[in-house]
Amino acid sequence: METGATRVETHCAYCGLQCAMTLSGSSAADLTVSPRRFPTNRGGLCQKGWTSAELLRSPARLTAPLVRQDGVLREASWDSALTVVAEAIASTTAAHGPDAVALFGGGGLTNEKAYQLGKFARAAVGTSQVDYNGRWCMSSAAAASIRCFGIDRGLPFPVTDLGSAHAVLLLGANPAETMPPFLTHLHRAAEAGGLMVADPRTTPTAAKALDGGGLHLQLRPGTDLALALGMVHIAVTEGHADRRYIASRTTGFDELWTVAAQWLPERTERVTGVAATTLRAAVARLARARDTERGAYVLSARGSEQHASGTDTVTACIALALVLGLPGVRGAGFGTVTGQGNGQGGREHGQKADQLPGYRSIADPAAREHVANVWGVPADSLPGPGRSAFELLDSLGTQGGPRVLMVHGSNPVVSSPDARRVADRLASLDLLVVCDVVLSETAEMADVVLPVLQWAEEEGTVTNLEGRVLRRRRALSAPPGCRSELEIWSELARRIGSPVALADDPREVFDELRQASAGGVADYSAVTWDRLDAGEALHWPCTPERPEGTPRLFLDRFGTPDGRARFVAVDHVGPAERDDAVFPLVATTGRVLAHYQSGAQTRRVDELVEAAGPMFVEVHPDTAEAVGVADGSRAVVVSRRGRTVARVRAREDLRPDTVFLPFHWPGDGRANSLTNPALDPTSRMPEFKACAVRLEALP
């Protein structure tokens, strides 16, 4: 529908479920949201979705460029703001080379913007220094899926397949708070006593499992890999392994078994804290659901993935699913729950340091040649792989590091691990440019702030957690002072004398994206806006040879050269940082229902702010008493990197050795002042989910 229409069908901008909604009204002031029947959300919305229109009319909305003058951000014209940026890019590349300019993207950008960000970086600027915040979300799951299956797609089956399952094991997932409509797909498993949740906390999702007779595997943070290996051991030694499947559809089992054979249930219990009887019950329930053809699934999420050993942990979780014979079978499988709004599409089209569009490797000569031909540039002009997200941010302003940074759709001052260190690096830049809709904590530090469009003001596509491409439709016009990132990159490319022109029309960009993705793993070549607007359900790969798309991957073969899934031998090593007498507790981070990511948007919605309350830390009552703090009092959480002030919430169902902090708040309440930037050697994922801390009473 055109701008000004009274009803527009689109999708929520928040999580990877991409719930369907209808926007009604003629302006931001009177726009209302109502849920729409759709396979992912089945007519439901969470509190964030219901209030999503509030940000469109928020007084915090940026409506004019800001340029820092005499230390103060002041309104400026678009021409003057873009002149500052273009001159800085040109002079910096001339003096220090193109890698002195960097771009940092986000998993909430549309497919068109994720694609064009990568093209702007590599073809217009010529820099290799481009990455995005999805590195902190799905990178370990992606690396493990590619390692074992040859393809990474969060759910390699439609989410509706989960609805018939009688057994679902969630590892580090709390969808009751992160994506509540997802729970509608788990009702049958919960009612059958087959919903099982591995989490250090008794989350609302774990409580739902227990209420239905399911299981809560309350493991110590950072021991997910040991848990998975222990369950593999039980599956094999207690007769639950699918030997025929292992022989016909996998390779590498013997190598994996040399490790898993050592993880006896009793050893696993000692390391993880999960009783051997609970481990046995969980494996048995998965096997029973499989054997009765009532559906069995293993799903991982950030709790098990955001570790310095996250890729190996997901690899072990996949091994558990493979031993049971679940992946690539109708009514069964393994998947990873994508978090960000376009977390799937955002990692497919080239805003990641090692990637080109179509989920191609930037180090692959054939991939470079293909994309270069689409862009009309020589293949050897494209830069190679750049630094990963944290390494990129940590190099800012250093010798040989970038001196100019453009940030799109991210707030690293709040969301980065060891965030104080990242803020120091941002402050050392010659020029920091932030494109955002509000003055986020990162934008407050910027030299130039460019106001961009919000989700209901733009056209484009996104790809949800099941690999389905969806249309984002414009419901209203943006304030006159706001522009799309596509317009910004197009104009900057022209001003810096780019060898390629960049389109600013999203439909034209998508058509080019289709060409660039053709023949790649994530092939969109047969997806068109007309087909999406007609209501077709198109999951990639969607090609001229397979125009109906691929809702279910791996039914015939996996994406590996021999078509078999791979077992990979991995072993538990534990958190990169150990607790000790000085820091005796393990802190883990996560989300709450009312807020999203760094909170830059949701903290501007009064209803959500009131629902969430102030920053808090969950602590076992005995742990709180031991350091002289009480429920409701303020306390300080201290790690080897920094400190966070939070309100104490005493919970008897929490492990005494664990504290939990949500990561949505800035300033003194910033949880990522504590977190450890230790990186996974494969995915370069930081270890958000386990760091050693102590709790102190606030003086």
Detail the topology: elements first, then pairings:
Layout: E1 7-11, E2 20-24, E3 32-35, H1 47-50, E4 66-69, E5 72-75, H2 78-96, E6 101-105, H3 111-125, E7 130-132, H4 139-149, E8 167-171, H5 175-178, H6 187-191, E9 195-198, H7 204-211, E10 215-217, H8 224-237, H9 243-249, E11 250-251, H10 253-260, H11 265-272, H12 276-291, E12 296-300, H13 302-305, H14 310-323, E13 332-336, E14 355-356, E15 360-361, H15 365-375, H16 389-395, E16 404-408, H17 412-415, H18 419-427, E17 431-436, E18 448-451, E19 460-463, E20 469-472, H19 485-495, H20 506-517, H21 529-533, E21 565-566, E22 585-590, H22 606-612, E23 616-619, H23 621-626, E24 634-639, E25 643-650, E26 658-662, E27 676-679, E28 686-687, E29 691-697
Parallel strand pairs: 6-7, 6-16, 8-9, 8-12, 9-10, 11-21, 12-13, 16-17, 17-18, 22-26, 23-25
Antiparallel strand pairs: 1-2, 2-3, 4-5, 4-18, 14-15, 19-20, 22-29, 24-25, 24-29, 27-28
Helix pairs in contact: 2-19, 3-19, 3-20, 4-14, 8-11, 8-12, 8-14, 11-12, 15-20, 16-18
Outline the structure in words:
With 699 residues, this protein is an alpha/beta fold. Helix content is 30%, strand content 18%. It is built from 23 helices and 29 strands. The protein has a 7-stranded mixed beta sheet, covered by helices on one side. Helix 3 (111-125) packs parallel to helix 19, helix 4 packs across helix 14 (310-323) and helix 16 crosses helix 18 (419-427). The longest helix has 19 residues, at 78-96. The protein is globular.
